[in-house]
Amino acid sequence: MNAPVVLQVAATPASPALVLRPWRLEDVAALVVVSRDPALRQRASSVVDNDADGPRWVQAQQRGWAAGDRFGFAVLEAQPGSVRVQLVGNVVLKEVTSGKPAAEVGYWTAAHARGRGVAPRALEALTSWAFDTFVAGGLERLELLHQVDNVASCRVAQKSRYDFDSILPAAPPSFPRDGHLHMRRTSA
Ligand SMILES: CC(C)(COP(=O)(O)OP(=O)(O)OC[C@H]1O[C@@H](n2cnc3c(N)ncnc32)[C@H](O)[C@@H]1OP(=O)(O)O)[C@@H](O)C(=O)NCCC(=O)NCCS
């Protein structure tokens, strides 16, 4: 991909507009702060482990873009009355392989920004971009996985039209509880 991908999401009556763009090293300070949230640490599959770990995490996202198999976006929210933006989340398209029909999505929202539809709005933008970009390479469906007790994530899947597909059995230690597999197909 030559130019950096920037996705725009319109404001709603309850929430400012969002901008999605590839992670940059300048995001590290804000990333480290939001990564201290225990709920995020418990649920996200890839997190910043400690305050010194931010650059490594961002560089891993950048390697994914360079390799063309993992596309992580920082989700930024415009601040009312200001030109400044604030980090509010992460959405990622992963496991992308040319000729493979399925890829996977993931997301988190910073604790201070939850409950305002940030994740479903950002996921919708990611989903449209993923299908627009990778259908020609054989992409047919996107998969979304969450643990059964992650009700908030299940709501994000439902609101984003990722239909429930099946229960995934627990596989400790990485997946201590059963999971839900949701899917969205190109035609949805
Ligand atoms: C799951 C998560 C991404 C949802 O993000 P979000 O931007 O808050 O999404 P929404 O605003 O659409 O809220 C989704 C649900 O979260 C719950 N919720 C609402 N307000 C909330 C708040 N202030 N704090 C926490 N959860 C809240 C509600 O169940 C809501 O569903 P509803 O719209 O039917 O009421 C977010 O809670 C999160 O980052 N959790 C930790 C990481 C995680 O679980 N990632 C997904 C791994 S599969």
Automatic annotation (TrEMBL):
Protein's UniProt name: GNAT family N-acetyltransferase
InterPro entries: Acyl_CoA_acyltransferase, GNAT_dom, Ribosomal_N-acetyltransferase
Organism: Streptomyces xantholiticus
Gene3D superfamilies, per database record: 3.40.630.30
Annotated SUPFAM superfamilies: Acyl-CoA N-acyltransferases (Nat) (SSF55729)
Domain N-acetyltransferase: 18-178
Taxonomic superkingdom: Bacteria
One Pfam family per UniProt: Acetyltransf_3
